[in-house]
Amino acid sequence: MQVQSTLLFETAEQIYARVFRELRPRTAFPEIGVRFCRFANANSFVTLREGRLDVKIADILEGAPSPVQEALAFILLGKLFRKTIAAAYSHRYRLWLNRSDVRRQIHLVRQTRGRKISDPPQGRAYNLEAMFEDLNDRFFHGLMARPALGWSKRPSRTMLGHYDPSHNTIVLSKALDCTDVPALAVEYVLYHEMLHLRYPTEHRGARRCVHTPDFKAAEKLFPRLAEAQAALKRL
After folding, report:
1. What is the pLDDT of residues 89-100, one digit of tens each?
2. What is the pLDDT of residue 3?
3. What is the pLDDT of residue 2?
4. Under-50 pLDDT residues of the chain
């Protein structure tokens, strides 16, 4: 109880100072500055330059309990110094992030502060709106409401597509908008992202399940699945 009581009266700077000393006991102690910033998500950042440790934390975490602030301090400084931290800290932080009230707040912040930048759905080789309607008829009885669709500004071969629930938007990588990429592969990526609308992410305690069993079962219904995945691997 003594450690818990101490946490309750620590400032953010004091928490980071204590965690810094625990992770780097023989390093010169830096000047520490902690700021809560109006980010469009729950991300936080830390830098160490010229003897000053600057911590920028998303303002949605400003009211988080001290044990959660401590867990984030261990996570951020652990990454900064490439130190392995106790799994309990990551678990504690994820558990707080997955609370329904916190998730609602993050969702609202993303909606009001963030924006989705993408190119129109009519690309050079493929029209995402026409492709969506075809997939909608074939797999969802035409009942899925069409979200905003677009191509990414830059071609990425690591993230081929993603669904943003805060802005109800599906964006596919511009690397797929090419006649060298078979339509089957593009359809599969779009179908995969459409499944995220049909089967939303589930939150269980500290766990976040993006691809649920129902999601995976539905994905296997895509015709010529192995052929589509092989085509994407060749990218």
Report:
1. 999 999 999 898
2. 45
3. 44
4. 1-3, 5
pLDDT for res 107: 84
Q: Are 42 and 63 in contact (CB under 8 A)?
A: no
Residue 213 neighbours by CB distance under 10 Å: 10
Q: How far apart are CA 132 and CA 25, in angstroms?
A: 56
The pairs formed by 176-181 with CB atoms below 8 angstroms and a separation of 24 or more are: 176/126, 177/123, 177/124, 177/125, 177/126, 177/151, 178/124, 178/125, 179/125, 181/125, 181/231, 181/235
2-113 CATH fold: Zincin-like (3.30.2010)
pLDDT at 83: 94
Q: Report the helix count and the strand count for the chain, using DSSP H and E.
A: 9, 8
What residue type is 62 in one-letter code?
Answer: E
CATH code for the structural domain at 128-233: 3.30.2010.10
Distance CA 88, CA 79 (A): 15
The pLDDT score that the predictor gives to residue 7 is 55
Which residue blocks in 118-170 are alpha helix, DSSP H?
Answer: 128-140
CA atoms within 13 Å, Cβ hemisphere of 87 = 1
What is the structure's pLDDT at 9? Answer: 67
CATH 3.30.2010.10 residue ranges of the chain are: 128-233
For residues 78 and 229, give the distance between their C-alpha atoms in angstroms, rounded to a whole number.
Answer: 36
Q: Is the pTM of this model over 0.90?
A: no
d(Cα 235, Cα 177) in Å, to the nearest integer?
A: 12
Pairing of strands 148-151, 169-172: parallel
Q: What is the 3-state secondary structure (H, E, C) of 169-235?
A: EEEECHHHCCCCCCHHHHHHHHHHHHHHHHCCCEEECCEEECCCHHHHHHHCCCCCHHHHHHHHHCC
